[in-house]
## 1
Amino acid sequence: MRHIFHQKPWIYPKDPAELRALYQQHGTLVHYRKGTIIKNRGESQKLFYLVNGLCMYYANYVENNPLSFSLVLPERTMGDITCITKQQVNVTTIVIRDADILLVPPDILLKAMQQDAELAIKICRHVVAKQESSLEAVITNMTCEPAIRLKILLKSILLESYVGIKEGWYAVPLTLTHEEYGQIINVTRVTISRILAHWQSAGLICRENKTITVNHLLFDDVYDWLSYFPAK
């Protein structure tokens, strides 16, 4: 599932505990409805911390043809890179599930880094990890066929919730729509439906209402370079 780095495609690591405490101390909690654009492309100096709900990062956002490169789960920061670099980027951040978000003064992050060198190093490493995750997602979408992309996405989501994937069945903890799955891996919802139906007929997944349960055998053909060169 990983081609170059150690990070899971599309799924950023959780923020360090020190950052979470900083945002909770200085942030203002706001509730956003599904579909709200909280940061439009080209905007900078906006800092958000997702308490609950779901968001997505879209590149070069066009409403009728969105292209996502990251699924933002709770306990993650949004906008930290532009706050640190003070640059504009062509990224749009959209709420895809009703969300509670802490709005944080954008200068808080740089001030904390200037005052605490160890925290600054930890933040830099965290930012790099997030970018590696995005790069893994882009590489996956560019080099893998759709069914493998969807397997990698499901495995990334499962590994975020389970210690490891061994023998057995695992419930996917996120209830994404076929359209949302398609936006993440850059295919149509019809393609997602076709892939899931094939897996179900092969006995690799079960579907009940919106919940997908997968068997570990689904991931047998998913390449992960760390399986061949384990991290030291």
## 2
Amino acid sequence: MRTALRTALATVALVGTATASIVSAHAASAATSPGPAGSSACVAATTIPSVFGGGMKVRLVSSADHGASATLLDAKGHAVATVNQSRPTDLADGLKITGVLSAKPVFGQRSQGGTTPWQSTPFPALTADCTLHGTLSRTLRLDARTTAQIFKVSADHHQARVFQDGKLVRFLDAHSLAGAALFGNRTLVLDPVGGTVSWTGAETAVSPRLGRYKLANGAIVKLVQRNGVYGAQLTTSHGTFPVSYAKGRPVVLQDNVTLVVLGADGTLSNHIYSKSVQKTPVYLGA
């Protein structure tokens, strides 16, 4: 019989991670059909005229994963200067961002220094599930370079921000379904009630081959693509579950002790709760 587990797993202690109870979410995520990434990628962008004139423009980008950034472009579209979370103010080029990691960053530009007033423009807004709403509940140290801040929105809605070397690199939103992030060789999964699981390795290469992959416990993951969007189908001893598609953001597939994360670029990462060492999925063919 095909079974979609909805109950949370028992709390599991993992070396180098917080204890976790990740909610299985096959039935809900399976209803998601493929389509353009759109706002689900948690990026919004617009282009505005530059105060310097002469055909120059400024490209404004809001990203839940990296914060706000603004790039000054010349008349041919070549980048002249950029401000972002690493450098939010560039007085020499008359650029600055106020609240670079906030929910409502503002871009400022001016053509002269001194007391010349700044011309302000709000960055394009992100969708609600791509915007930080919660209050900080705890901070996890994942490794020497990486920390994750966990935010509570409500009892069954949590969010997280991942920082590497002090810079924001990923944003997770877990509301009804678990959220996930892949960065470097690490994967982080956050469940709606705030539980986390993190592991290193055990992921396929970027732009992997379509077809079937075998996990360390014998489970099978089939990687597919439709309308330019990657999808994954999990088969375990409980049966074969519907395809879940990663439309701009990673999706989580889980059954019993098997946890799989599919990235929007087709990367597969897996964690088997009964295994002390995680292994990369083995490609079986189309």
## 3
Amino acid sequence: MTPAPAALAACLVLAACGAQGAGPGGPAAPSAPPVRTSAGPSGPSGSPGAERAEAAMVEQARRKGQGPDGSGVSRVASPRAAAFLWETAGDRLCLGESALDGGMTSFKCVRAVTAGPRDSPAASLLFGPGALGGGGRVVLAAPPGGEVVLVSHGGARAETTFVRTLSSGWSGRRLYYVVLPALPRGPLDVTVRSGGKERVQSLPTTG
């Protein structure tokens, strides 16, 4: 998926790379796993533009008392933009997004209570939906001890990236950044694997 540059107004419009083809929901073929992995905390640096954007984002967050804790910053990069996710010392999770052409940058944080009860069997919507190069994006957390294996909307598979495993304050939930072909106008179908079993959850969105 290579969206054209768009004006940045009320929300940041990103462009995502490495999109997978749309297809019906259900398990992916072994040769094309639906969930990929980000660089992770302190992982490969990526492009110089992403490095500069991360440094600026972290400095902005620290000035507001919401800088990353010792687990570092995880990056989901693309040619024109990047997303950064980190935890703070106060059990907050923050999402920063930055256009690499020097355009708008923004970040927001949520508290662990957003993920729901520690014994919840369901995935949680932490951020989004937000605009993303003509499509959309959300950030999900799997239930404690579980993992997200597929996200789809209207029968179209979404590009789903495993970002990191969160701290004990978040019950060790796995975190995912999801790129959607369009802003969702209804629930997402989220396939969650837990205890060796898979089930499909209908996850409401605000779109």
## 4
Amino acid sequence: MPKLPPLPQIPVPVRRAAYSEIRRVITQRSGWLIPAGCAGSGLITGLISGGTGSGPRDGAQIATGTVTVGLYLAVLVAVIAAAVSGAAATGAEYRYESISLTALFIPDRDLRFGAKLGVTALFSLVLGLAAEIGAGVGLALLGHSEVQFGLRLTGVLLGGLLATVCWGVIGASLGLLLRSTGLAVTAMVGWCLVAEPLLWLITRGIGIPGFAVLLPDSATIGTVAVGSFSHSPFLSPGAVSAVVLILWTAATGALTWWKLRQREI
């Protein structure tokens, strides 16, 4: 009987870098409290919307029905938590001046960068799963008769996980790029709450509101709210929004990687 080829083993330096970042997460209290908080908030919002919302209606803005509003709120909490924790994971290296010590044990900058963003993406995925599971339990308890599980709701769940992972990576990239957790969080808050809404108004005022679909906020909403707000000129279909959000994530990561290789630690 022919033998199967051996599975490729992960190189030791890669394992060492990954384990180092994983230990950094699981040995901190926040590494356990944040997922629990996401799950708890999801459970609460799921119970509230499950007990008060209704199922899908023809012509309604929310395609999956108001009963699933709690799920969207849970995803929003997970996205914010992922972005902030990602920025904190990398920005804290400069705040506590531990980046030189990290570089001593992991001198390869590419490996160090990949390990940080990879573990951040994994932790962000955990946050998204915790929030959606919590919301799912709440909906199952009080809103199971109104929720219609199908391809559209599946798209919302998958889109929520993708958005959470992307914003976690964006937060981690900005923490490294700006060398500060506070600056990274301020940049994300300023863009999401001030700059992009202002750009929406400007593009609408000059008659090209469709340009807004290329912006990260719009892409995030379109990725999560699959089929909802179909008449909005600021949102594109879910698949297109997902691609745009991935491109923003990749661009932020690529810029950070380039700057990390260029400047002194």
